[in-house]
Amino acid sequence: MTAERRNDRGRERNRGGSGRRQFSQQAPSQRTRTADPARLVAFEVLRAVSRDDAYANLVLPARIRHHRLDRRDAGFATELAYGALRGQGTYDSVLSRCVDRPLERLDPAVLDVLRLGAHQLLSMRVPPHAALNQTVALTRAVVGAGPGSLVNAVLRRVAEQGLDAWLDELAAEAPDEIEAAAIRHAHPAWIVRALRQSLVAHGRPVSEIDDLLEADNAAPVVNLVALPGLGSLDEALDAGATRGELVEGSALSSGGDLGRWAAVRGGTLRVQDVGSQLVARAVVAAPLSAGGNGDERWLDLCAGPGGKAALLGALASQRGATLLANEPAEHRAELVRQALRPVPPEAWSVRAGDGRTLGGEERGAFTRVIADVPCSGLGALRRRPESRWRRMPQDLAELAPLQRELLDSAIEATAPGGVVGYVTCSPHPAETTAVVEDALRRRRDIEPLDAGAILDAAALEPLGAGHPLASGRGTTAQLWPHIHGTDAMFLALFRKLPPSKES
Fold first, then answer.
1. Can you give the residue ranges of the SAM-dependent MTase RsmB/NOP-type domain (predicted)?
2. In this structure, are 337 and 427 located in the same domain?
3. If phi over 0 gives left and psi between -120 and 50 gives alpha, with beta otherwise, what is residue 320?
4. What is the mean pLDDT of residues 478-492?
5. 303 belongs to an annotated ligand binding site
6. Is 372 labeled as ligand-binding?
7. In whole angstroms, what is the distance from residue 73 CA to residue 61 CA?
8. 461 & 405 share domain
9. Which domain holds residue 265?
């Protein structure tokens, strides 16, 4: 070996592209080991999700405040964390081509760093050198110096081609179009099948599946609601939010630390998806029968964590009614109490108990009842980026008996002439139309109402124009993120029949 390839200590120089090695400009001891704060926040969110089974939307704001990120860095951290979580399955498929061992054998923290690096390289407008350097620096700061070389080598392989080329390569090896769509749109294959089935069950063409999956992957706009009679949109509008076009008292915001707003801190301005606002208002707008005993007591059977309860409580207060908010878990019942605190206390109360027993305990006591039952959450995947990788097909079967029992309890709790709303944030027929049809088949004390028409009446503009809401028997309604810009909320409305009219 020639002397010119060695330094004065006899060490070989680094080769460049021409075959001649070049010295690194920095000694290993001088390379940065300090994590960029925005990337550190994203890493902490991914670790909380994968290690602690936490929810990203709850962890992220706290970490942003802890690290005192400004608006720009908070936006970067949000896109990085949510994007890496949404695309986890696709990024893992790419990474598996670039790592010399099964991904499950990697340190989980290193795998989370690699996911963050892959998202920056493939789906963000981050220069490749910055994505590589900062991700390696993050690795050294939070995991250790040793794994930094591995992360650097793997991400260099990831960066050899763009996302489209990776997707083409991976999809070409998929066994069928569903598996290919799962790779291209970063959804588990079983969810792709479930959403295809859901479209058909609700009268939509299966050809909309790509649009639906893309809507799931779009960064959601923050939806706000000013509690009727209590809150104002002024602070949000002054900060750049725009008035919502679908629901009275709603606004759309690009996000940031909303906790800085006085109205948000006071609870009179709240974050709530417009679909959730609509179904709550539809239950309130549904007409009672002429023989009813007055619009006095309302029930939110599954109230936690309290978003709908706060809106319903404010509406009840305006109408001189009272709301009972029920939640089985005491810690979540406390969240409901906190959500309702801005509402005059005489308009609401909270019960911590099993909703399945409430109908028998307070039979016929309520004129309006909403049962927003626990469900798979397949309609809210865009707002809960980690949930698509947590849910399993068996969740649908396990939830079905609970959903039916809660609907039965809601019906028992409703007074003759009163209204029951059955709500899910899932479009899957096993959780929506199948539950409704089962109730109508078994019971003679309810009749279906036209949920689509009532939902339209509750909105500022017709939701069904060109996009029919009706599904199932033609009386239920289904919202869609790719059509209405909401979570995929399902609504069925029933009227409780007097005993003499049961058929």
1. 198-497
2. yes
3. left
4. 95
5. yes
6. yes
7. 12
8. yes
9. 222-271
Question: Which among 400, 423, 407 has a CA at the least distance from the CA of 491?
Answer: 423
Is 146 in the same domain as 46? yes
- Helix boundaries (H) for 124-187: 128-142, 146-158, 163-172, 177-185
Give the model confidence (pLDDT) of 291-326 as tens digits: 555 679 999 999 999 999 999 999 999 999 999 999
Report residue 102 as tokens. 């099964």
**Quick check: is 97 in a domain?**
yes
Total number of domains constituting the chain: 3
Positions marked catalytic: 425
List own/partner pairs for 327-330 with CB under 8 A and 24 or more apart. 327/302, 327/303, 327/351, 327/352, 328/352, 328/353, 328/354, 328/355, 329/304
Residue type, 291: G
Within this chain, do residues 234 and 145 fall inside the same structural domain, yes or no?
no
Distance CA 274, CA 480 (A): 11
Measured CA to CA in angstroms, residue 294 lies from 449, 451, 494 at distances of: 19, 21, 17
Residues 279 and 362 in one domain: yes
Confidence of residue 219 (pLDDT cuts 50, 70, 90): confident
**Tokens linked to 435:** 């539950």
- 305 preceded by a cis bond (ω within 30 of 0): yes
Task: HSE, CB side, 13 Å, CA atoms: give it for residue 10.
Answer: 0
Distance of CA 67 to the CA centre of its chain: 24
Q: Where are the alpha helices (DSSP H) in 414-450?
A: 433-442
Location of structure tokens 């099993």: 354
How much is the average pLDDT of 413-419? 96
List residues bridging with 494 in a β-sheet. 420, 448
Please enumerate in sequence order all residues whose Cβ is within 8 A of that of 434, keeping only pairs 6 or more positions apart, or say none.
400
Residue 322's CB is within 10 A of a number of other CB atoms, namely 17
211, 210, 208, 233: which is closest to 222 by C-alpha?
233
**CA–CA gap between residue 118 and residue 92 (Å, rounded):** 9
314 is in an annotated binding site: no
300 marked as binding residue? no
The reported pLDDT for the residue numbered 24 is 36
Are 329 and 232 contained in the same domain?
no
463 falls in which pLDDT band (50, 70, 90)? confident
